[in-house]
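ping. complex inputs:
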Amino acid sequence: MQAQLQTAVIGPTGYTGYELLKILFRHPRVKTPLLFVREGSEKTGEIGDVFPQLNGTGHVPMEPFSWSRAHQAGVDLLFLATPHEFSREFVPEAIRRGFRIVDLSGAWRLRCANNVAVYKFEDKDPATAKQLAEEAAYGLPELHKSDIAHAQLVANPGCYPTSIILALAPLMTAGLIDPDRGVFCDSKSGVSGAGKSPKQETHFVEVADNFRAYNPTTHRHRGEMLEQLKLEAEQLVFTPHLLPIPRGMFSTIYVQLREPMNAGRVEQVLRKFYDGKPFVRVFAPKLPEVAWSMNTNYCDLGFALSKDGRKLTLFSTIDNLVKGASGQAVQNMNVMYGFDEREGLQ
Amino acid sequence: MQAQLQTAVIGPTGYTGYELLKILFRHPRVKTPLLFVREGSEKTGEIGDVFPQLNGTGHVPMEPFSWSRAHQAGVDLLFLATPHEFSREFVPEAIRRGFRIVDLSGAWRLRCANNVAVYKFEDKDPATAKQLAEEAAYGLPELHKSDIAHAQLVANPGCYPTSIILALAPLMTAGLIDPDRGVFCDSKSGVSGAGKSPKQETHFVEVADNFRAYNPTTHRHRGEMLEQLKLEAEQLVFTPHLLPIPRGMFSTIYVQLREPMNAGRVEQVLRKFYDGKPFVRVFAPKLPEVAWSMNTNYCDLGFALSKDGRKLTLFSTIDNLVKGASGQAVQNMNVMYGFDEREGLQ
Amino acid sequence: MQAQLQTAVIGPTGYTGYELLKILFRHPRVKTPLLFVREGSEKTGEIGDVFPQLNGTGHVPMEPFSWSRAHQAGVDLLFLATPHEFSREFVPEAIRRGFRIVDLSGAWRLRCANNVAVYKFEDKDPATAKQLAEEAAYGLPELHKSDIAHAQLVANPGCYPTSIILALAPLMTAGLIDPDRGVFCDSKSGVSGAGKSPKQETHFVEVADNFRAYNPTTHRHRGEMLEQLKLEAEQLVFTPHLLPIPRGMFSTIYVQLREPMNAGRVEQVLRKFYDGKPFVRVFAPKLPEVAWSMNTNYCDLGFALSKDGRKLTLFSTIDNLVKGASGQAVQNMNVMYGFDEREGLQ
Amino acid sequence: MQAQLQTAVIGPTGYTGYELLKILFRHPRVKTPLLFVREGSEKTGEIGDVFPQLNGTGHVPMEPFSWSRAHQAGVDLLFLATPHEFSREFVPEAIRRGFRIVDLSGAWRLRCANNVAVYKFEDKDPATAKQLAEEAAYGLPELHKSDIAHAQLVANPGCYPTSIILALAPLMTAGLIDPDRGVFCDSKSGVSGAGKSPKQETHFVEVADNFRAYNPTTHRHRGEMLEQLKLEAEQLVFTPHLLPIPRGMFSTIYVQLREPMNAGRVEQVLRKFYDGKPFVRVFAPKLPEVAWSMNTNYCDLGFALSKDGRKLTLFSTIDNLVKGASGQAVQNMNVMYGFDEREGLQ
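pong. complex structure:
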């Protein structure tokens, strides 16, 4: 038996925290994670009191976070399932103390000041923050595996960007798409993407039998798409919608090609790009469905091409809590520590 | 054209308020109702800002409640879609001022002190409160039509009691059921029954794909069933459950008969009891479904009988927001003012 | 009391038939409709046996269709809620016999042979069929009110085209949109749009918690959009998706403007176009939600504009069974007979 | 590495087949199972064509069943996810040929001729069938572990009986319940319990936003409850209902106690009975929710007691496809082969 990794999860009581625990509890290469709560904001006690469905997996206490406890327990890797603002303030000190980090918040995903601005962070030490943001690896292993392997800080991508970037990357990087004709991303997300805190707009009666768009021009996740896909702001239109399902995400993406292509060629580009990458499945000529990637770490892709071969519609589905959050966080951990990328995720 | 009634709704911004408005706006015998909000607790403005789906029905303002405004506008009837505590305090003064009232809260449904106790009211004038509770009509028109017709104060029943009392009344009043062998009421309610305020337990992600029981021995609605059906506390077991649907209620009720009966006789008792009562439909030998009474003021009934003719299962469905609340409130108004009981409700 | 219209519904047992009956039963200008079933394909008996929720509205029998029965009963107007093929064969004879018709099927919506071809009709008398298709009014009253008023045959639009054409018409007819840059229509429909016959893909377990696209380049409703909006086939990309809700439709439409506009100007164009048209509500700057138009005949519109004022996203919601089918059919009847357009629909 | 078991699944294309494959594919003690289809009734090809979500787990072909192929491949254990009638005819020959069998159908669950009669089997060799039914182990490991360990044929229980028997067994076997006062079982099941074939009553539009009872006095699963709990037919009232969720089951069970008990004592009886049995969790004093056992092999229990300590309400939840079918089938396999009961199930 190899030595096992000691991880800790800060903020285990939300939906991404829960998914992360489910994966870590059965991961063969990690010990039972330490569960840390932020002072004053979360209850201590047994995790089984927060998530009764975890009963039967043994007693796992939640404790207030302290550096000394983290050091003493020999924590190697910190997962942050915390608010953006907390992560932005917490990470510089954690880096100084030598911890490796996978941050599930949006705190370190962006480099361009203009994009970061939407979060309205008030950094105590702006220079350090800027430098950290530049050094952080963007945790999409299909695009940045070697950066992630060596990073001390991995910024786990947002759920919308994960579904959209993975769909567009193969044809964008091959220069086959003409972004000047517009990149229109129509995304639909399950409700868990809005978090666990009860709000009027996540009340069952408001969501069930309903469907709506929100934040059509201003969603925070735009910046990640722009930076990762090297798009100009005016080229990208991104509209998130709320699906009346607990989890799952579907993106329909409309682009125009520089030269007419046929379906076989498009399929080939997609398949080649993801050859050897275990968590992207190309379903063409079938179209993927949200249910197929539910409770998995897969991103499933498909497409449709107009008769004239110029207008391409890409389809992309993920489970927003797994590949869109906690599954990808563990995939990043696997890459950081040289484990098989699939470990704990199948 | 006859003179029309001037009504006012206090507390129009919840789910029962909304249903009430939808009915009153199309009711041929009432003017556009005045909409009053409680001080400090609800927003003023247009009702169309709270319920955008009401746009197109004209501008209806919400105003802070004041006695002078109610008198000046010539209000005949007040509908209270307000918290129990508010109604308990508000009604004595409204009665003194001569208004007739349909109270959708639980403030005046109960007479037995022991049952009332669950609400923990702190009456300023307990004697008046006791007397008012005794004079109030229990607003189930199928049982108390003539009381309601003459009442100044009508206590609109709870949703669970409506579905359960209407199912049991025909056989109970005929003395055919043996309550000593237990009256087991297994009720399932749509989520709107829990109100509009967002809570963790009404978050879409917590309710969807889920089902659970709650308050199995202590639900406040027990008292209404005991009083209306003349049951002893130990005879009644009532278990409410939360259904993952926005609205609708289904009660399955298990009782034992004093003497064996056959299905034809049971059907006859039900049909005879509700003959001429337009809002109870007996579906036997079919079993009613929640969808059939959805968005209607019907209570739909069915039953199943064990082979030996001793164990009877009754099925009862209503829309918890209509027959279980606002539709019944309007039915009560129709009875109070001598309109056809069905007016505005079909 | 004015003379009332005698209508008949052929094919009343599907979802659109049911919605149509609910409206006609309460419509003040029509008698109880005759209900005709197609020979061999639907059951006769009481409509209350097919839709138990209609019990309590009186006994309405379903009878096999015959011309003599229709003539003898003095039928003025026939509603066809029948398969496309049946309507295509039935209508020429009905026209010869002098009946006015609102056909809810797709049989007569299209004029361009190329578009009609997707239905694979085998017309016995192609010349007559061609002429009828040219004479038929396209039953979108917001665009063709005077044609409809005088038409003997009204082709009720498809649900997807209704939601999309109403959103695009104001800016398209004003020449503000550049269709050469692409018109991308991303539509999401409730499951009732797929009809009442049980299929694997409408099984509850396959639909619940799921979301998927279907027929992305080939859906039959494309032709209506092309003809009504005067678009070239290569300009239009239309992707229908299946929403896990029983009814309701949401279209998100991406276009580019010829000249930059500001939001106020876009709103003005929309509002002006629909001024005096009671069934289109412009919600801007709010975004409409599916729930707001549910169970109504409204089409609700909203939009979002990119910062540079060039990329416009339109949002459009309808109830696919009401404005997308049976409500619009009754709206057409109202126009054909000079009734107030809103009669029976509020 | 120990030798691994070779299993085969006959009938892998339904919902229980799919769940079984998901578990067997990750079970450490079994090889990839052979997938057999019944002649003429199911398609051959890749299982990934039937369940696209299984793509990525390797190519697994489905082949027509033949005895020679089963022998040649060295199959140890046959899982039957087939119709009752098929299993009833198939099993005698399989037994003769020496295969061990876990039958997920209802073919061999019952011993009493009266109970078996509901299936209307036409046995070619009634004597053998009767004997096999007597020798078959009833596959509820919490009650019959040692029988299962030695059985050649294990009859996997129905989903409703699993949830109800596990709730009642502790107090029934202790003689604390008085069955003469009635055992009222109110069960609610997710739609996958009705199978994968599309029917009108499983159409999404018929199920969503709805709730209904069905087969209230005649459901086939009654016999299992009677035999396993040693109840007389007239003591048991069982009402199944259809929940608008894809999977999950909740049973609320009303009984009366011979002597008054307090809650602590009831909890103790439950906990003691299931001590050391890993797949039953006693949640008292909490009430279990369907979501907690979803996608797990747990049966979760809770209860409520009336004030007088005489009327007991038991709550029991399972995932109808896991503990109610395929998970329990694998649990039975684990017992049959001496593996840890939890292997592959956590």
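The radius of gyration of chain D is 20 Å.
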